[in-house]
Amino acid sequence: MRDYRVTHHELLKRLEAGNRRFVDATTIDRTLELEYTRKLLAKDGQKPWAVMIGCSDSRVPIEKVFDAGLGDLFVIRLAGNCMDGGSLGSVEFAVDSFDIGLVLLIGHKNCGAVTAAHDSCAKSHSPHMDLLFSRIRMASKYRRKAGDSLDLAKAEKANIEYWKDYIRQNSEFLRSRELSGKTLLCSAYYDTFTGNVQFLDVDSYNLRGTDLSFRSDVLNGAEVLN
Ligand SMILES: [Zn+2]
Q1: Ligand 1 centre from 59 Cα, in Å?
Q2: How far is the CA of 39 from the centre of ligand 1 (A)?
Q3: How many angstroms does the Cα of residue 188 sit away from the middle of ligand 1?
Q4: What is the set of domains in the chain, with CATH numbers?
């Protein structure tokens, strides 16, 4: 039987190591194997090992940030990570099709969509943008106490936590995979200045060691905003 705990540990360590290479500018040169990999994937099909839900921001290219190769990651990118039924279906499709053990939501510093959603001077150009901004505004105020002033970093992290709970609340399939230990749902925050990814649910010290310990408050489903 597959040991999903080991799988989760390995996948997170793989992402953490890839991000370290990105930060240190020691990324793997895959030029020589690119053609072979492309043809192999085309012939045998894809087998991505993680689902990533990132922002569409051009400064946060998920595969580069984690120094991942062709066919490694199933990536969904949405401005401000603002999800809906279709994007949730994409996550379910990937997890179901490839038995994926890790879904990671990644927010980031200086998110233009979160900033615009809170900009009272921003002009409305279409009802679709209005809808986008109103949903991000709601999400980024998640669990914020009444009267608290806007702190952009907190709003960006709250936004991610909201969409993580959105997945849990709206997908019976993914909730059941999480409860049975098959798929880990995590969140992370990318620093656009340093290139560093902070895993919000996992103690990064332990991620580098031999033991992977998840914060008990997260495992219990409680909301945590850093
Ligand atoms: Zn963004």
Answers
A1: 9
A2: 33
A3: 13
A4: 4-219 (3.40.1050.10)
| 53 Cα: distance to centroid of ligand 1 (angstroms) | 11
pLDDT tens digits along 172-217: 999 999 999 999 999 999 999 999 999 997 754 355 444 444 433 3
197: closest CA among 189, 206, 207, 186?
A: 189
C-alpha–C-alpha distance, residues 184 and 218, integer Å: 11
Cα of 108 from ligand 1 centre, angstroms: 6
Predicted model pTM: 0.86
- pLDDT score for 203: 56
Give the torsion through C-alpha atoms of 139, 145, 149, 151, to 10 deg: -50
CA 107 / ligand 1 centre spacing (Å): 7
pLDDT of residue 136 exceeding 60, the answer is yes
Roughly what angle, to the nearest 10 degrees, separates helices 152-170 and 127-140? 100
